[in-house]
What we know:
mainly beta; globular
Amino acid sequence: MNFERLAEHKWLTQLVGDWEVTTTMPNAEPMPPGTETVRSVGDFWVLAEGRGSMPDGSPAMTCLTLGYDPRMRHFVGTWLGSMLPHLFVYQGTLDAAANRLVLDCQGPDFSDPTRAASYREVVTIVDDTRRTFVSYLESPEGDWVEIMHADYRRV
């Protein structure tokens, strides 16, 4: 069975490579710098594996998968981190003019882990050597509040 590689699949290839990452969170100490390696998984997927340390010095590992599902007509993906027992499952759209991928998901409410919260992750390609990943939490009033900002530089 042959599937056509679409522009959305090609957009993901901009992420492929080795990156240094600096992560900040509002009202928190900066995270120690980390690294991420992104590779293609065939013509339709990318897999990003991150390594770093938590502020307390414990190791941190993350795994992000992204692809585009032409039948569903949106991006799909997952994120998991060694620091959380939750798998985030994404559904997203591409703003090609802004070179930005917007991913929505549900996850634990960190103030009450028995409840779910809505998250939005925004991947922006700044140029060939830089990209950002910004995470937002939906407030009870319906506003998107930035909770994490990661800046990636190609190595």
